[in-house]
Write a structure and sequence with these properties.
Length: about 325
């Protein structure tokens, strides 16, 4: 029993130290210098305010989850939902999207929700998140079409090519959904049987009675992300004048960098600098801003994730 308690305390600490080491020791001396300079000149009032807004996003994501779980018949404790979400953010810093598996596994451990159903609700969340993010992308491209079109031409990329690729991908996705729903092929029927729990979790959004509350929190999550990004521009005097439409483009490309890497390590500030440079902001300032927001948010993720991992076995002790 004592060994088990000791391991429950020491294992998350080792994991946290490993993540911190992995995240920060892979940075080049130039990148570390940019981080240091951005934090030396930053106005920390706006940093702390952005972190507070981020907490709203954490809370809303956990609160949204309970609607899908309640529809499946599981009355989970909110503190468990919140802490598993925090741990999943932490794990995502190592391998992209691995936090979703961890989140479902922890809920199974502490709330006895079957893994496949919990994971299905998480997958459904991601589908909703992608759709909302596509709305942001559409809004950004429409408002900044001329600038982005010139940028694509400069990079020898035609807008028409990207449009056809996107439409082709959408058509293939629609075709897959159609086949999955209506096809009577043996392999499809077998897969449906094997993945019945996962599908039940995914379809919980469509069938739940509180779907509008669910959608409200879905938009609140992304709104908090955007506002967090916007607030941070006031932390540096060189970025305080940036207009909201430029902020939106920086937010979009920064989010893409995070989505395709392990927490945006290295890629996030470069993506921000690249977009900001289109609007006359120097590469040095763009990189410094990117490191400022990435480092502060990553430290918050590590802190909340470690704290939640330590507290989960404590608050669920019986």
């Amino acid at each position: 029993m004592l060994l088990r308690k000791f391991l429950s305390l020491i294992v998350p600490l080792i994991i946290g130290i490993g993540i911190i080491y992995y995240q920060f020791t892979t940075l080049t001396p130039t990148e570390l210098k940019n981080i240091k300079l951005s934090f030396l000149k930053a106005d920390y009032f706006y940093i702390y305010l952005s972190l507070l807004v981020s907490l709203v996003g954490y809370w809303s994501r956990a609160y949204r989850w309970k609607f899908a779980l309640q529809h499946l018949g599981y009355q989970t404790k909110f503190h468990n939902d919140f802490m598993t979400v925090c741990v999943s953010y932490l794990v995502n810093l190592t391998l992209p999207r691995s936090g979703e598996i961890t989140r479902a596994a922890l809920l199974k451990k502490y709330e006895k929700v079957p893994f496949d159903k919990a994971f299905g609700t998480v997958v459904a969340e991601r589908m909703v998140d992608v759709l909302i993010f596509l709305l942001f992308i559409t809004l950004g491209l429409v408002s900044q079409f001329d600038t982005m079109y010139a940028f694509l031409l400069e990079k020898n990329l035609k807008f028409e090519t990207l449009l056809w690729v996107s439409l082709s991908g959408l058509m293939l996705f629609v075709l897959f959904i159609f086949v999955w729903i209506y096809a009577e092929w043996k392999i499809i029927i077998t897969l449906k049987q094997k993945l019945s729990g996962l599908l039940e979790g995914m379809l919980s959004i469509v069938k739940m009675k509180d779907k509008w509350y669910y959608l409200f929190h879905s938009f609140l999550i992304w709104f908090s992300y955007l506002i967090m990004f916007y607030i941070t521009i006031f932390a540096l005097p060189e970025t305080a004048h940036i207009s909201f439409d430029v902020v939106l483009m920086g937010f979009i490309f920064g989010t893409l960098a995070v989505g395709f890497t392990n927490g945006g390590l290295g890629a996030y500030p470069l993506a921000i600098a690249m977009i900001f440079s289109l609007y006359g902001i120097s590469n040095e300032i763009g990189v410094a801003f990117g490191w400022l927001i990435w480092t502060s948010q990553t430290l918050l993720t590590i802190f909340l994730g470690l704290l939640s991992y330590l507290l989960l076995p404590v608050v669920n002790k019986k």
